[in-house]
Write a structure and sequence with these properties.
Distance between the termini: 26 Å
Largest sheet: none
Helix content: 55-70%
Strand content: under 5%
Number of strands: 0
């Protein structure tokens, strides 16, 4: 798969995942919502590391900058 996530997109996803994890660890969220949000956090981290968002692929979106050709 072709990478379709830019650096800022990856950073935002990791920050959001860290916030979700912190909310869980400090017991701000719990129960079913905590599980759902932790799964989302895991998906955010995973997609950030591989640089591919399947939803972006389906929609033809990319946030990755194209290399300049000088």
């Amino acid at each position: 798969m072709t990478q379709n996530m830019g650096t800022i997109d990856k950073a935002i996803r990791i920050v959001v995942a860290l916030i979700i994890i912190a909310l869980y660890l400090f017991k701000v969220i719990s129960g079913t919502w905590a599980i759902v949000l932790l799964v989302v956090a895991g998906i955010f981290v995973f997609t950030s590391f591989i640089g591919v968002c399947p939803i972006y692929s389906l929609l033809g979106i990319t946030t990755k900058k194209k290399p300049s050709t000088h």
